């Protein structure tokens, strides 16, 4: 049995491809973001749920790890994971960002090409950013976003998932 917050992702993303979430590790320090990692078809996934903030458009999500010496730090490109899945929920909307390591590194979220970040904003398609930075961020994030509509996935979403988890 796994946590309730993984039920939707299993049902909507993985069941249509007959894939299963396995080896779940709950990250207790980031409970507000449903932080965990798991394996799916030999891929290591870092999972988070993004949260609404009262004063800014979009949602905020943390993406950090505890260093061996104690303080928190951004994930590094060399860390063992394949992608990060960020869940977004608002009213009757539900969607997932599936960010691979390459895009996270390119955008300076991972420590690698840049110093990395402990958290960042995400802008699902239903959000309307009200500043230039938000608009640009939504633009680069859009190809990595899958929206679940009427609880049924479109064929092109299944193709994207198949390319990530099966090929």
Describe the structure.
By secondary structure, the chain is of the alpha+beta class. The protein has four helices and eleven strands. The strands form three sheets. Strands 1-2-3-8-9-11 form a six-stranded mixed β-sheet. A hairpin with a 6-residue loop joins strand 4 and strand 5. The longest helix has 11 residues, at 155-165. It starts with 6 loop residues before the first helix and ends with a helix.
Radius of gyration equals 15 Å
| Straight-line distance between termini | 27 Å
CATH architecture term? 3-Layer(aba) Sandwich
Query: What is the helical fraction, as a range of percent?
Result: 10-25%
Shape field: globular
Mean pLDDT: 90
What is the CATH topology assignment? Trna Endonuclease, Chain: A, domain 1
The CATH superfamily is known as MepB-like
What is the strand tally?
Answer: 11
Give helix and strand order, one letter per element, not per position: HEEEEEEEEEHEHEH
Major beta-sheet overview: 6 strands, mixed
With helices defined by DSSP (H or I, 4 residues minimum), what is the helix count? 4
Structural class: alpha+beta
Strand order of the largest sheet: 1-2-3-8-9-11
């Amino acid at each position: 049995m796994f946590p309730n917050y993984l039920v939707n992702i299993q049902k909507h993303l993985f069941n249509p491809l007959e894939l299963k979430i396995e080896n779940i590790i709950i990250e207790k320090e980031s409970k507000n973001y449903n932080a965990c990692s798991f394996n799916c078809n030999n891929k290591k996934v870092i999972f988070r749920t993004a949260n609404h903030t009262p004063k800014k458009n979009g949602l905020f999500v943390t993406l950090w790890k505890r260093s061996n010496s104690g303080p928190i730090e951004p994930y590094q490109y060399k860390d063992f994971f394949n992608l990060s899945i960020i869940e977004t929920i608002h009213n009757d909307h539900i969607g997932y960002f599936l960010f691979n390591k390459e895009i996270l590194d390119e955008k300076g979220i991972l420590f690698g090409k840049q110093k990395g970040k402990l958290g960042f904003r995400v802008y699902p398609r239903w959000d309307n950013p009200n500043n230039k930075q938000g608009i640009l961020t939504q633009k680069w994030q859009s190809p990595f976003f899958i929206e679940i509509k009427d609880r049924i996935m479109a064929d092109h979403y299944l193709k994207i998932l198949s390319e990530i988890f099966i090929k």
